[in-house]
Design brief:
By secondary structure, this protein is an all-beta fold. It contains no helices and 10 strands. Strands 1, 2, 3, 4, 5, 6, 7, 8, 9 and 10 form a 10-stranded mixed β-sheet that branches. The chain is globular.
């Protein structure tokens, strides 16, 4: 696909809208029910924005995976890392090789425990 826009739904509500330059959907084989987006991938959810060059939606696992560098932005807070795993709302995110500038005003107090920072 060229310039796809993809919406991922959870419980009938859009969790994230993804845009990229290219996309491929795999319906069978080892990558069953997955979507691969490449080139200026941008994801927008209620809990933030995601920027990366390569993003995989693993439908069966219900998660997003960015193998290379990814940036998650919430308000003025910016978190950059690699090997990102996230739920589609970006409420729960795990990354390695972290660099970040976080501001408490951009995080919901009850959600601090949901953000995981892996040691380098």
């Amino acid at each position: 696909m060229e310039n796809p826009t993809v919406q991922i739904f959870e419980e009938g509500v859009v969790s994230i809208t993804l845009n990229s330059e290219k996309g491929k959907q795999f319906l069978n084989g080892t990558k069953k029910d997955s979507l691969h987006l490449t080139g200026n991938v941008v994801g927008v959810s209620q809990d933030g924005k995601l920027f990366t060059e390569v993003l995989h939606w693993q439908n069966l696992a219900g998660r997003l995976f960015a193998p290379d560098e990814a940036t998650v932005v919430r308000g003025d807070s910016t978190w950059i890392g690699t090997e990102m795993l996230a739920n589609p709302t970006l409420e729960t995110v795990k990354m390695k090789n972290n660099r970040f500038k976080l501001y408490p005003k951009d995080e919901k107090a009850h959600e601090y425990h949901k953000t995981s920072i892996e040691p380098e």
